[in-house]
Amino acid sequence: MAEYGEEASCNHTILPGHSHSHGVKPYPVQPQYDPDTPYPLQPPQPPPVSGPAMMDIDLDGLHTQQPIQKEQEDYSTWDIVKATQYGIMDRVKYLIEQEGYDVNQPDDENVSLLHWGAINNRLELCKYLILKGALVDRTGGELNSTPLHWATRQGHLPMVILLMQYGADPSIRDGEGCSGVHLSSQFGHTAILAYLIAKGQDPNMLDQNGMTPLMWSCYRMFVVDPARLLIKMGASVNLQDKVHQNTALHWAIMSGNANVMPLLLQNGTDTYIENSKGEDVLKMAASKKNLYVFKKIQDHRGDTAFKHVGILHKLSMSKVCRTRVMYTLPFVTFFVIGFIPELDYSIAIKLLLFGLCYVLFWFLSKLFFDERYGNIMPISVYLATKVLMYSSWFFYYWPYINSMSIHIPFFIISALLLYNFVKAWRSDPGVITTSFEEKKRTIIELAETGKLKIEVFCTTCIIRKPIRSKHCSYCNRCIAKFDHHCPWIDNCVGAGNHKYFIGYLFFLEIMIIWCLYGTIQFWNGECETNFEEDGIFAWLFQVMKCSPWVFWTSVNALVHVVWVGLLFICQMYQISALGMSTNERMNQTRYKHFRHEKGRIRSPFNNGYIRNIVNFFEIRCCGLCRPMKIDWKTQFDMDIQSTGSYTYKPLSTQENYQFV
Questions:
Q1: DSSP string, 115-166
Q2: What is the domain-level CATH number for residue 51?
């Protein structure tokens, strides 16, 4: 199946009758509903295709299929149906204009010429047929379908656009009661689905059995793009079909499609809705013996082993309470690890206290932790380590550092660290947003200019992606000049906060070095051992004995000073020497504008060390420097000059979208 945004180049011509792929019909019949047999044993799958692949990907955006040229073939003997299928324009014109063939005359299968041209993506030929009077909404074939239905099933977006420009109605139902949005959802043609909805089709349209496109997508497609787009464009997750009273989540569970389940749960699916059998989604998952889905639904509902304990269940169901516990527990953990060994008790009592704390933490994690913990934990751990280090500075290191020349710079660095951390954490990293009407206009413009491809369009946010932007799977939003998602600041790093992130790393490294200096001063004044005289093992035992809290702080500081330092060096190297973001450096072979002559990879944004730094930090230096300011939220294209420098050319929505 072709990836979203990449049109299928149908090298395999579909022929009538017995010539169809060794008996496989090009327009397969969907299984009919039988109320007495509610559910098929297996979810319906796309039909097998023999011979050359019907869905070869056209990476260069060549949407018009070229006629198949056969050497030493005498086209003068071909009938008009075969000539139409192979795109032999001259033969078709001769038969219509010289022989008087009626363009609306059906063949033996009650299929018109426009049907065969549409299913084989013969754009110029179909345009000619329409201008000669071919009916664009003529029905025919086994399923009583229109040419638009045939083109939609095969995933030919250019043909769908052409037919609709000449008046084809995508809301017409075929013999199974399916319209264009249902067919594109069933076969995962997200580009066609987006175009049809942007042109006014209802994302909640019902087929003859009351199934919506979202239900079909969740039942048949094991990729999330079609379902995600439908929800973004207004599809309801809680509608029920007319026959079985299933919601989209019911259909997903029925076919074992666990990929779309998180998407449906995040968008408000009611897990208590029952179908005609009296099954909610939890009961259906149990009947299907799908333990993974069963557990996910339980977690979403907040069902725990303590649900029969009133107050505990009430607290665990509160999202605010869950969040607070998940944020607080790392602070308590770091405190316990340093505090218990500091107590003047026997080792047995200390081990007992550690055991009790472990049981308590396990209990709280089972009761309050949910799928958000992976995102909350890193920033909570970061804040906990900083509290640990500052507590050590004031309660342990202060007596051994008598000079204000040490304390004052430490406070200044701490203030700068706090400022840059908050700005990196809370600032807009460059989120790209548009209105619903702008989303629809973007889809139509990109589709009709042949540029509705994954490189320039985000299927999740339904926006045209500016150059250097990327969709963040953690934040579920597109970020301008995306660098990476940093769990330690619980935010993306992009055009809006990248310089603050660099400042945060720089001042954090200095603060940790200051903390290590305080640790050494404490050990020199408090511990009686000497590293050079006693050796490493005796020294380690002595410093641990002096203060387990300070030793625990030093371990955290050493770990931080290494990874923060390496991250800062790596970031500055990319910014100054390469002119790249982290995302661009990791995926440089995927971006066309990084491909230079002779196959070399080079960033077109690299202007040399000094200029890169001036532009990145927007250094003016009393007017001596003139940084280049670019609005990366609206910068869609670029011109790369032969000198290696670059100029930016924002395009209007009326211009053609492509890399120069």
A1: HHHHHTT-HHHHHHHHHTT--TT--BTTTTB-HHHHHHHHT-HHHHHHHHHT
A2: 1.25.40.20
